[in-house]
Amino acid sequence: MKNDRLIEVLTELGLSENESKVYFSALSLGANTILKIAKDANLKRSTVYSIIEALKQQGLMHVQMHGLKKKYVAAHPTQLEQMIEKKRNDFKKHLPEFLATYHLDGKESTVKYYEGLKAVQSLYDESVQRIKSHEDYLVITNQEQWLQLDERFFMNYIKKRAKLNIRTRLLFQDSPTARKHKKLEKNFNETVKILPTGTTLETDMILIPSMLIIHQLVPPIMAIVIENKSIINMQKELFEIIWKLLK
């Protein structure tokens, strides 16, 4: 059966058999409760709790709040590309089948939570995959603290972003790192402005047309993603106000 083959592919990518079953069930069902995911995966509810936590750490499962109720949603299948580089070609061959299985509930708004540095890093990779040519990529951050989390990963991310044909504008908390980076802005295809002295930030905000990312830079490392046009547009307006006020 096709489902069995796709679950086998997930196992080959490095997931355990039960992780593969839970991820695929969540992928097929869309945002849903642990009870329904467990039933679909034919696993005990108590087992699924621990598996979902493991998948969240890998950036493959997120939480959505529906009122006071938590629902769990599988990450977009392209995130699997980040898991094992050696299996990249095999995954791409099966990607259309995963995308055909992926269920979106059609609602206008979603809120997702990413817990742990690796999960947050997968989100950064997703952001550059989702942005389109000539779109705005807006950031407000403490560049020094951001780089300290994993300088190698984030410098590679900056270089990857620089190759895209997008409009990148950055607002940095004042620091030696921020001022040094500003001198290199042309090298990275971006425009940088420094926020007023005394500004203190412990979060990184990224704004692209399809999503708003709020990344906490202090422990516990986590991020919230909001996909809502009204909220995104409001945050863009606020960014533009700050941008115009700064020299």
Automatic annotation (TrEMBL):
PANTHER family tied to this protein: HTH-TYPE TRANSCRIPTIONAL REGULATOR TRMBL2
Protein known as: Transcription regulator TrmB N-terminal domain-containing protein
The organism's taxonomic lineage, starting at the top: Bacteria, Candidatus Kerfeldiibacteriota
Domain Transcription regulator TrmB N-terminal: 10-77
InterPro entries xrefs: TrmB-like, Tscrpt_reg_TrmB_N, WH-like_DNA-bd_sf, WH_DNA-bd_sf
UniProt xrefs under Gene3D superfamilies: Winged helix-like DNA-binding domain superfamily/Winged helix DNA-binding domain (1.10.10.10)
